[in-house]
Amino acid sequence: MAWRPGLLCCLFLSLSLATVARAATRRYNWEISYQFVHSDCVRKLAVTINGQTPGPTIRATQGDTVVVTVKNLLLTENTAIHWHGIRQIGTPWADGTEGVTQCPIQPFDTFTYAFVVDRPGTYMYHAHYGMQRSGGLNGMIVVQAAKGGKDAEPFAYDGEHDVLLNDWWHKSTYEQATGLASVPIGWVGEPQALLINGRGRFVNCSTMAPGACNATHPECATPVFAVVPGKTYRFRIASVTSLSALNFEIEGHQMTVVEADGHYVKPFVVKNLNIYSGETYSVLIKADQDPNRNYWLASNVVSRKPGTATGTAILSYYGGRSSPRRPPPTTPPTGPAWNDTAYRFNQSVATVAHPAHAVPPPPRADRTILLLNTQNKIDGRIKWALNNVSFELPHTPYLVAMTRGLLGAFDQRPPPETYAHQGYDIYGVQKNPAATVSNGLYRLQFGSVVDVVLQNANMLAPNSSETHPWHLHGHDFWVVGYGMGRFDPAKDPENFNLENPAFKNTVAVHPYGWTALRFKADNPGVWAFHCHIEAHFFMGMGIVFEEGVERVGQLPPEIMGCGATKH
């Protein structure tokens, strides 16, 4: 794709002249290929960027343009990359969502993503094609605040570390996807390891066939984070997990939460941090413990009964008597009880906007969409559905179809906006688990204010409800409310937080609970909104919003070539 700077003019006009004057262009050239790696000491084929997983961290300053040229060398497999948390104002075709904003990048083809990073913060990128995120195509994006700008950090620190959390399977993404689409279902199961910055350990290494697992391989060496005694450090933490909700802890060090999803929050102190797939946080720690020993960084599964060992790294003090790679003298922290929903719920509620950076939401919504999240069966296959509709991607990307008038490319009937909530028992197994499949979307009036309430419920098995992290592309939203039980549209909005709600792009819906969010439909384009658990989106847990698509500029021809746009 030939990048044209003029496509970004509208966004640059919205930035201060001082920021534009300092803006730079950050260029990256990536080759996507399968390579053998030993991320948890077990030899496995992974989807890599320039031979590595995770991929390189993108570092930029607010207002910079990031240009990433991607060459697909996967031989027999398409790909696409989503820049998670980047709103893509003026560049909706660069969102990287196959089936929504672009055709996938075919083998041996090259595609260039170009976009402005207009806000500072901690973000991530990952594949948005099939289940390639699970296969290793992911990494972090770190955007520094522009000097002297209004978004300067309201906290101080002496140094920073990046922490990318992930879960890891030995089965290929093809095996996982085939199992999910089978009758009976072949569930992906619990991960074999939890990774920190792409490294972990499979605890049953000694039981594998000779040569299959090498516990001394450098690719699975425990990561080390070095600190200077007395200094304060910012840890930027991102979760790109495919399934697992995690609890993160730095042994012996309290953490002060200061940022969530690229927005400053009212600081609060935690012993450990619950983080869901698609979320990012920044925490501050003081290096004020005994410098002569090492400490664990620990990642543990919560919200699902754990079947995976603790993921670990080491915090080591400069100048101490302990070797940086020496294991700490203690057992790695195991975190809170995996099924302590109240503990995790309360931490969600405690996350609110920083007083100096709070932007109150509009006082009322123009439209409310109430989505019941259920597990269903369609033709014998287990699916997930919203208001009894399971989502599937069209063969022609919505953005292309809607700007070119290809109305036959997807279902023109909009999905339902509510369900029969007054008589629905969210704690019981559905009496009728049948559902339909659709690729219809919700059309939003441009500039309108939209409330979405996500309602969790029981699954097909009795007494079972899971946490679902939902991610909205192209926007941030105000998290105006959380609740347990069934949402009451007549009463619960009275208790919405309209004073200082957190501004996020990913939010958890807790078991048997609901989460309410509010956003402005002011970014022309077509945007996915889905559960960030990869298997759940694959099984239909998602929807799509369209807003102001007639305002989108000329589409690059490189995003076409599939479905109804084949030449």
From TrEMBL:
One of its GO terms (molecular function) is L-ascorbate oxidase activity. Keywords: Copper, Disulfide bond, Metal-binding, Oxidoreductase, Repeat, Secreted, Signal. It is found in: Secreted. Coiled coil: none annotated. Pfam families: Cu-oxidase (PF00394), Cu-oxidase_2 (PF07731), Cu-oxidase_3 (PF07732). It comes from the Eukaryota. It is an enzyme of class 1 (oxidoreductase). Residues 1-23 form the signal peptide. GO terms for cellular component: extracellular region. Its EC number is 1.10.3.3. Residues 325-335 have a biased composition (Pro residues). Residues 35-146, 163-319, 432-548 form the Plastocyanin-like domain. The keyword Metal-binding applies. It catalyses: 4 L-ascorbate + O2 = 4 monodehydro-L-ascorbate radical + 2 H2O. Residues 319-338 are annotated as: Disordered. Its cofactor is Cu cation. Dimer. Belongs to the multicopper oxidase family. This is L-ascorbate oxidase.
